[in-house]
Amino acid sequence: KRAGVGKATLYRYFPSKEELYLESLERALGGLEHKLNVELAPQQVPASVRLSAMVSALVNTLSEQLQTLKLLGGDQSDLADRTRRILRRRSQRSATALQQVLAEGMQSGEFRKIDLEIVPLLIIGMVRGGIMQVDDRPREALERSVIDFLMSGRTNLPPFI
Q: What is the rounded distance in angstroms from the CA atom of residue 29 to the CA atom of residue 91?
């Protein structure tokens, strides 16, 4: 309905609901990458503000896509496998943008020293896992919780041992 076309038109381009979903996922994650790399990249903004905006973008984009996957059903292992491959490939690109902001925050003293290879992937995984597990909670609660969790360790706390 939102696209302004009928089902017959959609299925001319997409042979199934699953193919339509996968294309939608690809485009949404491409938009997320653009947002993380271009719109949220200005270096004159503090890294903590940019990281919060990035978490917000992750929560909003992934919650729309992963909730759709849940609705399609978990019994479709081929769809689940293809979705995981897309998410894995696209997550690496998003992790690079997170890594850059985290590195800038460490350099400016906003963030303590962290593992820049692992932490960005943990942020993405935390968001994805939260979306999959907290069905009845508003996405704003998830977003706030992830940001609070990340920011609670941003100052001069002792490093992990």
A: 9
Spans of the chain, pLDDT less than 70 = 67-76, 135, 153-161
Instruction: Tell me the chain's radius of gyration from C-alpha atoms.
Output: 17
Place of tokens 């990035």: 54
Query: Phi and psi at residue 32, in whole multiples of 5°?
Result: -65, -45
What's the whole-number average pLDDT of the chain?
A: 82
Say what the pTM is: 0.79
Q: In 10 A of CB 120, how many CB atoms?
A: 24
Dump pLDDT digits (tens) for 122-138.
999 899 888 888 767 78
CA dist 43 and 46 (Å) reads 7
The residue behind tokens 């381009």 is 13
